[in-house]
TrEMBL record:
Keywords: Oxidoreductase. Coiled coil: none annotated. InterPro entries: NAD(P)-bd_dom_sf (IPR036291), Sc_DH/Rdtase_CS (IPR020904), SDR_fam (IPR002347). The keyword rRNA-binding does not apply. This is SDR family NAD(P)-dependent oxidoreductase. Transmembrane segments: none annotated. Belongs to the short-chain dehydrogenases/reductases (SDR) family. It comes from the Bacteria. PANTHER family: PHOSPHATIDYLINOSITOL-GLYCAN BIOSYNTHESIS CLASS F PROTEIN, PHOSPHATIDYLINOSITOL-GLYCAN BIOSYNTHESIS CLASS F PROTEIN-RELATED. Gene3D superfamilies: NAD(P)-binding Rossmann-like Domain (3.40.50.720).
Amino acid sequence: MSATQSSTRTVLVTGADTRLGFATAQRVIADGDTVIAHILDKNAADETAERLRATAEPGRVRLVQADFTRLAEVDELGRTLAADLTRLDALINIASIAAPHARTHTEDGHELTFQVNYLAPQRLTMALIPALAAAHGRVVTVTSKLHAAGNIDYSDLDRNRGIYTPFAIYAQSKLALTMFSRSLAESGPGELTSVSVHPADFEIDLPQLRSHRAAPLDHAADLLVDLSAPGTPVRNGGYYEGSEPAKAAALVGSSRARTRLAVWSNQLTHTAA
């Protein structure tokens, strides 16, 4: 997959302090573009900035920070970037976690994995829609093929009841994220392109499911940056496994299910406001 870039772009990469996020930010820099590198953990900010700026031209790296376990920080970052940016060429949503072994909730009252993997990127993306649309930009969202094993229980999305299993919790979060990616393509501004992708032949967030837990991520990072480039043909709203379009879970294709999820998510945003 290749792309021709005619001018310098600005690309926001979330989770730049994770392995895949850092590799992707480096690839953006290598292309000569400007990266806005989002950091989840403020304690990792200095080290991440130093490593990224070591290979970048002056002014090509901007660091921003928001803890995705705190929605107030996510909302503040969204407001700040929306005010600063008249246009944003691409947003690559990478920040993600594996589900903890035991039921865990954030200070906002949401199940931890669902908040970090779905609610936070959904809110940040929505805040940046005007800047992305102005640039005819792209949103590339890292999901997982495990989303197909997920289920959306609208009566208990935060898993306050019932049996807790990390696999099911993780799959639910990635299913919701994949549904959001499709909805963004169908109901967002016409100038915007949105795709979701499982970028590697192993499960990035769940090293226990693979033997090569230190596997290089260069190919995955290359793929994400290529998908974010305007010269790369993609199917708007599509789900990809690697560079190939793939069949998403049935709920991803259900406009009724996606509308219900959107209503639930928007109610949270309005309540917070």
